[in-house]
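Troubleshooting entry. Yesterday's outputs looked truncated, so today I'm pasting the complete records for two proteins to confirm everything comes through intact. If either block looks cut off, that's the bug. Protein one:
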Amino acid sequence: MLYGLCSNTVKRVALELGGNAPFVVFASADVDAAVSGLIAAKFRHSGQTCVTANRILVQRPIYQEFVEKFRAKTCDQKVHYCQFTILHTSNLCHLLI
């Protein structure tokens, strides 16, 4: 709607995907690289950055492959606390089943 209103007078506009740090993966993407990028974006500083990926949008043709690879990498993540205790992020794995 906004873009349509601006087009009558040929204004340049930039539209975002609704904010909330979207992570978009197209069918032509390298799935392994996309998964690695999402792991870095999602778990950087335990997800406490303002640009942490909160919405993950994956095109249907690669969706299942992406979810399987993301789940596997997520289950492999470890949180180190004071170099003594190692906690697994298994609670995130259950969300991806």
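Protein two, checking that the full record survives here as well:
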Amino acid sequence: MLAGASLSGFVYNELTGDSQWQPAEPGLASRTVSLVGTSVGGDSVQRTTITDTDGFYEFLGLPAGTYALRLGASAVCACAGVGGEAERCQDLALDLLL
């Protein structure tokens, strides 16, 4: 029996504008991360978690399928320049195939 896949990562404050985590960019605690999708068997999968004090999140025991990972505007800034100004934040989404 398969144990399932896992997905984990960090939500952080993008300060340098290079879309790559840097040691000076702090993790964001208490942010909601949602995972929604459909397993290969056709079952709907919906999970939500909260980042820890370092911005870490984790989803365990995921069945094979196609998923979308969503972070709200309050969770992370995707800014064109340096500084992460709140008014330039937007929702981010990532589509995944496990």
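Both blocks look complete. Sanity check on protein two: The radius of gyration is 15 Å.
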